[in-house]
Design brief:
- Helix content is 16%, strand content 31%.
- It has a three-stranded antiparallel β-sheet with strand order 3-4-5, with no helix packed on it.
- It has one domain (27-99).
- By secondary structure, it is of the alpha+beta class.
- It contains three helices and five strands, in the order ββααβββα.
């Protein structure tokens, strides 16, 4: 079984059935220009917090793993409101959805 703490994210997938050991982030997997995903990135990933606290019901996310200062890797998120077709500077707040 996995020794890491559980991940509470809809994009995290793990398969440990009958000796398998497969984990992936399906959000990062869709972005072919991203650096490779590692399980340790989930501990500091902003995606679960964004999904929990956003006011936008139809948010579309794209995540990429970037390297900062040559050492640290982290997940950066690009967010779009799919209902109003606007790019969100703050993924937790859509001004058009707030008006509604």
């Amino acid at each position: 079984m996995a020794t890491n703490s559980p991940v509470n994210c809809r994009y995290y997938y793990a398969d440990f059935h009958r000796g398998r050991s497969h984990e992936e982030c399906r959000l990062i997997k869709r972005n072919h220009e991203s650096r490779p995903w590692r399980r340790a990135l989930c501990d500091s990933c902003p995606v679960p917090d964004i999904l929990l606290n956003t006011n936008c019901k139809e948010i579309a996310l794209e995540a990429t793993v970037v390297k900062k200062w040559g050492l640290l890797e982290r997940v950066e998120v690009y967010a779009v409101c799919a209902k109003h077709y606007i790019e969100l500077d703050d993924p937790k707040f859509c001004p058009q959805c707030a008006v509604e």
